Amino acid sequence: MRKRRAREKFLSAGLVEESRIILNGSECTVQHVLREDTDRDKLAQSGGKFAHYLCKILDVYFSYHHDSYCMKGVYLHDPTALLAAVNPSLITYTEGIVRVQTIGITRGLTLFYNKPKRFAEVTEWLDKPSVKVAVTVDAPSVLKLVMERLTDS
């Protein structure tokens, strides 16, 4: 209940209409992977202090992704979100209304509506603010930038 009141207070404050909300969901950030076999070796062989530190702590992430997703690599969620803020040209966006389920078995499910239809009747989609939602990422460029930053650190 406290979260619902906080959300309502935020929305009623008009902050949504005054600022541009940008959503970079996991559908966008899973489009590229730091590979365990090739990228990790490059990081280990580089002179970058952050690259060396990252190599020391990556085991837990590689294990998690291997066990959970049957893959030999890690998704770059956080670096992609940061790079989207620094260089938005790496991301393609579309606009629409986003709703998040707050109760029941679908709690946390995000719904996105970006159709041009105007509703004649009152619906849960009526008069909601539009947000920018990331739909694609220039994955090779993001990976290249991440690797460069880490190996040159």
User: What ranges have pLDDT less than 50 throughout 5 or more consecutive residues?
Assistant: 15-19
What value does the Rg take, in angstroms?
19 Å
Strand content: 15-25%
Category by helix and strand content: alpha+beta
Q: Give the mean pLDDT.
A: 82
Most strands sheet: 4 strands, mixed
Number of strands: 6
How many distinct folded domains?
2
How many helix segments?
7
Gross morphology is: elongated
What's the helix-strand series? HHEHEHHEHEEEH
Helix content: 40-55%
Which strand order spans the largest sheet, edge to edge or round the barrel? 1-6-4-5
Termini, distance in Å?
A: 45 Å
Organism: Camellia sinensis var. sinensis
GO molecular function: purine nucleosidase activity
GO biological process, one term: purine nucleoside catabolic process
Family: Belongs to the IUNH family.
How would you describe this structure to a colleague?
The protein is α+β, with helices and mostly antiparallel strands. The protein has 2 domains: 16-32 and 76-138, no CATH class; 33-75, no CATH class. 46% of the residues lie in helices and 19% in strands. The protein has 7 helices and 6 strands; from the N terminus they run ααβαβααβαβββα. The protein has helices at residues 2-12, 15-18, 26-29, 39-45, 49-69, 77-86, 139-151; strands at residues 22-23, 33-35, 73-75, 91-100, 110-113, 131-137. The strands form 2 sheets. It has a 4-stranded mixed beta sheet with strand order 1-6-4-5. Strands 2-3 form a two-stranded antiparallel sheet. α4 packs antiparallel against α5. The model is unreliable at 15-19 (pLDDT under 50).
